[in-house]
């Protein structure tokens, strides 16, 4: 099927183009919930004809779209269906980041990228290392921050000496996983601490590796029981710098019946989401940034992106 599209540039005349409606995007536009607008920035970006600076309106359109998502029954149902079936199929185990398995949904990794780029932490503390992919992801993002800082400072891309770092904690760092992390090209940015994340000695070791002026972000992804995550939040969230985030993974457990997570010590009523609610009732320095999971739709961390606001 061929559809006619119009594109209004900032200066020139309205340009008409035709395209074969082979992609889902075009089909969605035709039956989309918003009235079709030939001046839409979303629409014009296909043809690269937009001349005016439309960045503000682009951001506003995105925000409006997230509002629409919240009331979009079919979209919410489709997302819930995908989450249910993909959790059952252990979809989160299927991906690597720069060569090591990262046990996350790609959408959540994208959200972390946006958070890290925007908030520019110096140190990322992660509980739950598993096979090391999330440590490598964080290290790679921090390396990019160092690189871009150096570019901006006119150092021709040579990163500064005092590099940003990741501190990972796991109860059980298996020899092959440790070796995979330690032999990775980004290993120089990574420190691993073996032990229970709620052990005061482990917390002390983590604290010793942070200086007071450094911006800190935290990701909690170890044991997902209520009691454990409450303890982690009480111990690690205070390390987060105002303006930065504490990401709590697997709040999704609260959304599905226990059969979706067979053989686990966590379940509905006993999981990271219940822990987040408990923590937020006692600590007003943090707020759930709902805009993140509401736009992701596919996420294991709905309600788990906590921003430190005070
Ligand atoms: C979901 S995996 C972490 C996945 C990893 N963040 C990633 O994205 O690839 C959970 C990890 O938490 C660790 N773990 C479980 N209980 C823990 C505890 N009490 N303290 C620290 N780590 C723990 C497990 O050994 C396991 O490696």
Model description:
- Helix 9 (226-236) links the parallel strand 8 (216-220) and strand 9 (245-248).
- The protein has 11 helices and 11 strands.
- It has helices at residues 24-31, 41-44, 55-70, 73-88, 106-119, 133-152, 175-182, 200-208, 226-236, 272-282, 290-296; strands at residues 2-8, 14-20, 95-97, 100-102, 123-127, 165-170, 190-194, 216-220, 245-248, 286-288, 305-308.
- The strands form 3 sheets. The protein has a 7-stranded mixed β-sheet with strand order 7-6-5-8-9-11-10, sandwiched between helices.
- The chain is of the alpha/beta class and 310 residues long.
- The protein has 2 domains: 2-60, no CATH class; 73-308, Vaccinia Virus protein VP39 (Rossmann fold).
- S-adenosylmethionine is lined by residues 102-104, 127-131, 133-134, 169-172, 196-197, 221-223, 228.
Summarize the structure.
By secondary structure, the chain is α/β, with parallel strands linked by helices.
| Strand/helix succession | EEHHHHEEHEHEHEHEHEHEHE
On the 0 to 100 scale, the average pLDDT is 87
CATH architecture of the largest domain: 3-Layer(aba) Sandwich
Q: Name the beta content range.
A: 15-25%
Q: What is the level 1 CATH name of the largest domain?
A: Alpha Beta
- Give me the number of helical elements: 11
Helix content: 40-55%
CATH topology of the largest domain: Rossmann fold
Low-confidence stretches: 1-33, 35-42
Number of domains: 2
Bound molecules: S-adenosylmethionine
Q: Could you describe the largest sheet, including whether it forms a barrel? A: 7 strands, mixed
* Strand order in the largest sheet: 7-6-5-8-9-11-10
Radius of gyration: 22 Å
For this structure, what is the CATH homologous superfamily of the largest domain?
Answer: Vaccinia Virus protein VP39
């Amino acid at each position: 099927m061929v559809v006619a599209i119009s594109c209004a540039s900032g200066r020139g005349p309205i340009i008409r183009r035709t395209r074969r409606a082979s992609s889902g995007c075009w089909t969605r536009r035709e039956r989309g919930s918003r009235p079709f607008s030939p001046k839409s920035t979303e629409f014009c970006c296909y043809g690269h004809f937009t001349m005016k600076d439309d960045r503000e309106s682009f951001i506003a359109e995105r925000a409006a779209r997230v509002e629409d998502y919240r009331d979009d029954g079919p979209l919410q149902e489709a997302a819930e269906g995908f989450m249910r079936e993909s959790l059952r199929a252990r979809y989160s185990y299927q991906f690597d980041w720069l060569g090591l398995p990262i046990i996350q949904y790609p959408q959540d990794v994208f959200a972390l990228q946006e958070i890290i780029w925007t908030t520019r932490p110096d140190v990322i503390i992660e509980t739950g290392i598993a096979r090391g992919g999330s440590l490598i992801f964080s290290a790679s993002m921090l390396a990019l921050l160092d690189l871009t800082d150096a570019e901006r400072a006119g150092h021709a891309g040579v990163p500064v000496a005092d590099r940003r770092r990741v501190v990972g904690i796991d109860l059980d760092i298996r020899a092959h996983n440790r070796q995979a992390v330690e032999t990775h090209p980004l290993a120089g940015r990574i420190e691993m601490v073996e032990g229970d994340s709620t052990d005061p000695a482990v917390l002390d070791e983590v604290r010793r590796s942070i200086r007071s002026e450094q911006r800190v972000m935290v990701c909690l992804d170890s044991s997902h029981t209520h009691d454990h995550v409450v303890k982690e939040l009480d111990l690690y969230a205070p390390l987060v710098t105002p303006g930065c985030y504490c990401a709590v993974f697997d709040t999704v457990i609260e959304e599905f019946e226990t059969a979706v997570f067979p053989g686990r010590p966590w379940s509905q009523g006993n999981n990271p989401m219940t822990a987040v609610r408990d923590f937020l009732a006692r600590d007003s320095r943090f707020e759930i940034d709902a805009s993140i999971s509401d736009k992701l739709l596919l996420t294991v961390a709905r309600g788990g992106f906590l921003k430190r606001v005070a």
